[in-house]
Amino acid sequence: MCKTKGFRHAGQHSLGNRGGTGMICIRSSQNPQNPLRIMCGPPPDHFSRVAEHYAHARPTYPLALFEWLALQSRTRDLAWDVGAGNGQASMGLARHFDHVVATDLSEEQLDRAPSHERVTYRTCEAHDSGLDNASVSLVTVAQALHWFDVDRFHAEARRVLRRGGLIAEWSYGTFSAEDERVDRVLQQFYHDVVGPYWPAERRHVETGYRDLPFPFRTVRTPSFRMDRRWTLPMMEAYLRSWSATGRMQQATGTDPLEVIESDLARAWGDPVHPLLISWPLALRVGIR
Fold first, then answer.
1. Angstrom distance (rounded) from CA 51 to CA 78
2. What percent of the chain is helix, strand and coil (3-state, nearest 5)?
3. Phi/psi of residue 277, nearest 5 degrees
4. What pTM was computed for the model?
5. What is the pLDDT of residues 95-108, one digit of tens each?
6. Beta bridge partners of 166
């Protein structure tokens, strides 16, 4: 359980003062580029070993998604971004909400998140936010729900959400490349090369979270997708950001990309030629 002592952001929003287990959240000054950090405990995570690749290589979410969520929200004073990683969704939310609390298990991920005057970062578990009861307008989970104790997290979300507040959970699974030859090599890497090293929770991403409970009144949503034009080095950086890639490298002591490196280069052709890469988003939204 997190406890925040005597800190408010911009003189407006309480970030919580709930006790229970003695863990204390304190402001961290270790990273002067990211001064709004609150430390709440050191639980393990899946992404520290690939945090640098993750921060630079992951695709960003469409701005239209955050615009739509803001339009659906009755109030826009406080959003909680859970499993925030390096702040990709947090930055999108900060365009529309007065303040964003972004939480994640990985200190390394949060260390690489950009600073923003309306975003506060915390190292916390998803079911232990430390936020006040009925204080949040919108809860978001971007590509992270499968790592949570889902029932405990949803109970926490219900606690902190205002009546009529929204919760939005989304994921993106297997991507596709516009060039069929490139796509075949990439799918081989995903399924065959690093496939055995995906954590078991990855299956929930591939089903779009349809097999996970959602105890909220659902809202119909439009379709969203991420489209990026990437060069070959950009794609290789993305493949290195996968948790399965990091796990395989740690287990075998070899670089997993070496398995497909020559085939991918041959299929891609000119490495600086950008190809269209697409990820459909699986989104579900509910009302408290």
1. 27
2. 35, 25, 40
3. -120, 135
4. 0.80
5. 999 999 999 998 88
6. 138, 287
